[in-house]
């Protein structure tokens, strides 16, 4: 493994009142914290005042700096109406070059599908942003039951999926970091 830890940004994509995204992100951050090869930072879209017309602003600068300094990104997203939230799309569209050449993973949550449809849509967006979407993702079904009063209710399958996803993110991020040191990403 690389000597320097991979800088992983975990982005919380929901801004709805009563959202459960921060609890899901905290769970995932706990999984990632057990891995010495990662350092983590959180970007919560709710904390950003991103303009809907996508003009540059102090909030877009904060987002751009966080993504620029990251080696990899994990998006924590709910599934709303078979898709991901508009707030997340605004965040993805608010910066451009900072995403390029970086691996991305997804932790989704929702009803019976666990947000799988939101993740599949986000994979298309990630490809357009010149990101590498890792194969494995985490889907937490019936999230309100799982993250009620007892966080230990997260299924072993989700923990295993998070571990596999982190393995893949580390591999891609380490390779991309090495390449950035010698050759900038060609997709400008």
Which CATH class is shown?
A: Alpha Beta
> Helix-strand pattern, N to C?
EHEHEHEHEEHH
How many domains in all? Answer: 1
Instruction: Specify the helix fraction band.
Output: 40-55%
Main pleated sheet? 6 strands, parallel
State the CATH architecture: 3-Layer(aba) Sandwich
Annotation field: number of helices: 6
Shape: globular
Based on secondary structure, the structural category is: alpha/beta
- CATH superfamily label: Flavodoxin domain
Taking all residues together, what is the mean pLDDT? 93
What is the CATH third-level topology name?
A: Rossmann fold
Proportion of beta-strand residues: 15-25%
- Report the strand count: 6
> Uncertain segments of ≥5 residues (pLDDT<50)?
none
Radius of gyration based on Cα positions: 16 Å
- Separation, N- and C-terminal Cα atoms: 29 Å
Question: Helices, strands, pairings?
Answer:
Layout: E1 6-12, H1 21-33, E2 38-44, H2 58-69, E3 72-78, H3 86-94, E4 103-109, H4 116-128, E5 132-133, E6 138-140, H5 143-146, H6 156-182
Parallel strand pairs: 1-2, 1-3, 3-4, 4-5, 4-6
Describe this structure in words.
It is a single chain. The longest helix is centred in the last third of the chain and has 27 residues. The chain is α/β, with parallel strands linked by helices and 188 residues long. It has a single domain, classed as Flavodoxin domain (Rossmann fold, 3-Layer(aba) Sandwich). Strands 1, 2, 3, 4, 5 and 6 form a six-stranded parallel sheet that branches. The chain contains six helices and six strands; from the N terminus they run βαβαβαβαββαα. The radius of gyration is 16 Å and the shape is globular.
């Amino acid at each position: 493994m690389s000597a320097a830890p991979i800088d992983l940004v975990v982005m919380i994509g929901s801004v709805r009142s009563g959202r459960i995204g921060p609890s899901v992100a905290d769970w995932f951050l706990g999984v990632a914290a057990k891995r010495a090869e990662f350092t983590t930072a959180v970007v919560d879209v709710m904390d950003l005042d991103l303009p809907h017309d996508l003009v540059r602003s102090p909030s877009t600068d904060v987002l751009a700096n966080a993504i620029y300094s990251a080696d990899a990104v994990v998006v924590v997203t709910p599934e709303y109406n078979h898709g991901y939230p508009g707030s997340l799309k605004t965040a993805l569209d608010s910066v451009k070059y900072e995403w390029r050449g970086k691996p991305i993973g997804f932790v989704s949550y929702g009803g019976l599908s666990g947000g799988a449809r939101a993740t599949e849509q986000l994979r298309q967006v990630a490809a357009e942003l010149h990101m590498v979407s890792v194969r494995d993702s985490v889907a937490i079904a019936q999230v309100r039951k799982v993250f009620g009063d007892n966080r230990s209710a997260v299924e072993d399958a989700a923990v295993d999926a998070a571990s596999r996803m982190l393995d893949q993110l580390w591999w891609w991020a380490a390779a991309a970091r090495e390449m950035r040191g010698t050759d900038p990403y060609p997709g400008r």
